[in-house]
Amino acid sequence: MIFAGFDALVEAGDPSRTGYIDGYVLPVPAANKEAYRELAQRMLPLFQEFGALRVVEAWSAETPDGEVTDYNRATHKKDDEAVVYSWIEWPDKATRDAGWAKMMEDERMKPPTEPPFDGQRMMWGGFAPILDTARS
Question: CA dist 126 to 21, 27, 86, 115, Å?
């Protein structure tokens, strides 16, 4: 188990209908916090336009070192970096697959010339909820 605490940088949407989640974790230089938040804020409407219900971008508040593994090791975090933990909620996997396909063709998805993070150390995956208190 990896445990940590994060503060929301960007959050928008309604979690009550989530059926599929894209999650990702990456290290970001602490000096680039505002640049990362601005990029996330710019991308938020695109995700929503292509079907996302909710987007959350969270900045590490506490990522303790574990005995075996932790967010710091998983992202190869350097001393001057923070960990970002984020997720995108979709109504279902089909909507997510179609949304990502459309986004990858959209000119607005072009990455910045100098992204505020090292994408080579980003990890991501898709998840189907097995317990969700927002869907009582």
Answer: 6, 19, 12, 23
